Write the structure tokens for this entry.
Amino acid sequence: MTVQDKREAKRADILRCAADVFSGTGFHATTIQEIATAAGIGKGTVYEYFRTKEELFLAVYDSWMNEYENTVRERVEAATDPVAKVDAVRQSAVDFYQSRAQQAPLLLEFWAHALRSTNPAFLERVHATRQFLQDLGADLAQQLVTAGWFTSVDAASFALLESGISDGIFLSWVLEQQRFPLDKAYTFRQSLIGMGLLTDEARTALRSRLSAKLKKGF
């Protein structure tokens, strides 16, 4: 293992421990010493990688979003048609949130911090992920229109609204202390949107299956 490899591994370990500590006590109450103790290193070592606690907080979120975005890209590229690509985006979101179920409030804290912080890098990072998802959503919506599944719709407006609905589901899941199944809630949302946008031909073909999902709920 090269020196660079060792540094990257150490940085990743600090980020993992920082996420755990931040999740337990919150950003403001957490100290660098607590993170260093969790990582089994000295406080000075943390500062070798991150100049401030806020920089470390941003790095945790950035690493999460990079992982999430890369997963979405890989799954969408592997899908063979627009419907499968939409399913890939939905499942990627569910997998990401569920894999961090115990740390979910940390995402909400980051969004709140981004709105308050004088450091523009926080809000820029939030917007970067949202823009990535909205651009992808608009592209997939247009593909569904072209393929005859969706009726004509302003793809950009649809993607913006859909991303807001997705964020709302996640927020409700956190506030409800994860009492409902996240995967079924996202599938319900997809069925509901689908019934509204499907062309007459597509609605006829899928009516019974989607109606059953809507009646069942989540």
Remarks:
- Residues 90 and 186 are 7 Å apart (CA to CA).
- The first helix runs from residue 3 to 25.
- The chain has two domains: 1-51, 53-216.
- The radius of gyration is 20 Å.
